[in-house]
């Protein structure tokens, strides 16, 4: 589903990042800088992102380029799914965020639910590992793997956090407007399939 120009821009960025990390020849380094600049221009021409911001994002990455990891907690209560309203776009998503250094995926899921929704949970099962490019998300400068982790509520109460403005539980047929940069309708429905069929295999792209 990812547009071809975005795939090329990411590949050029990955090539330039690896080249700038491992090359020693001054002329090769200059060429890899040119390749990175091409990827920045491609991204800026095809998105609404500011070119300076894109350049800063890419310039901040060093070493061998690898996908980023986004972790989403899946929490059900009375057959309804926990969601939070994001302050950045006003739409709704599963609690979650980037993986943190020093935390396991389960620990990140638990932490994000507490910070964004107020509940204490325990992580119990991996439901899916999805490649963001295979799903109808808006264009993103990063290649992202999305981990969906089932969690059970063990305490706490609904409470918004710094990045969220509301907390709610929603049935499959009454979903709120979704923050599609974070989760899509098809992904949410995939999570409900796990609710209805607990023996469902872990989904992966």
Automatic annotation (TrEMBL):
- What Pfam families does the annotation carry? NUDIX, Nudix_N
Domain (Nudix hydrolase) ranges: 66-192
In terms of InterPro entries, this protein maps to: NUDIX_hydrolase-like_dom_sf, NUDIX_hydrolase_dom, UDP-X_N
Task: Tell me where on the tree of life, at the top rank, the source sits.
Answer: Bacteria
Quote the PROSITE patterns the UniProt record gives: NUDIX
User: Which CDD domains does UniProt cross-reference here?
Assistant: NUDIX_CDP-Chase_like
Q: Would you identify the family this protein belongs to, as annotated?
A: Belongs to the Nudix hydrolase family.
Report what the protein is called. Answer: ADP-ribose pyrophosphatase YjhB, NUDIX family
User: What organism does this protein naturally occur in?
Assistant: [Bacillus] enclensis
């Amino acid at each position: 589903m990812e547009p071809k120009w975005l795939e090329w821009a990411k590949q050029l960025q990955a090539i330039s990042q690896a080249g700038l990390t491992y090359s020693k020849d001054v002329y090769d380094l200059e060429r890899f800088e040119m390749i990175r600049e091409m990827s920045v221009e491609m991204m800026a021409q095809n998105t609404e992102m500011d070119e300076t911001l894109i350049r800063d994002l890419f310039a901040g990455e060093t070493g061998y380029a690898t996908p980023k990891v986004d972790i989403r907690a899946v929490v059900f209560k009375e057959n309804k799914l926990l969601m939070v309203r994001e302050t950045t776009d006003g739409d709704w998503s599963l609690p979650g965020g980037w993986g943190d250094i020093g935390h396991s995926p389960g620990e990140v899921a638990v932490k994000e639910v507490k910070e964004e929704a107020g509940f204490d949970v325990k992580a119990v099962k991996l439901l899916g590992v999805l490649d963001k490019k295979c799903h109808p998300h808006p264009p993103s400068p990063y290649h992202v793997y999305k981990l969906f982790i089932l969690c059970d509520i063990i305490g706490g109460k609904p409470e918004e956090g710094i990045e969220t403005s509301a907390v709610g539980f929603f049935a499959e047929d009454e979903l709120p407007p979704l923050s599609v940069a974070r989760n899509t309708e098809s992904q949410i429905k995939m999570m409900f399939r796990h609710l209805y069929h607990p023996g469902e295999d872990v989904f992966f792209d």
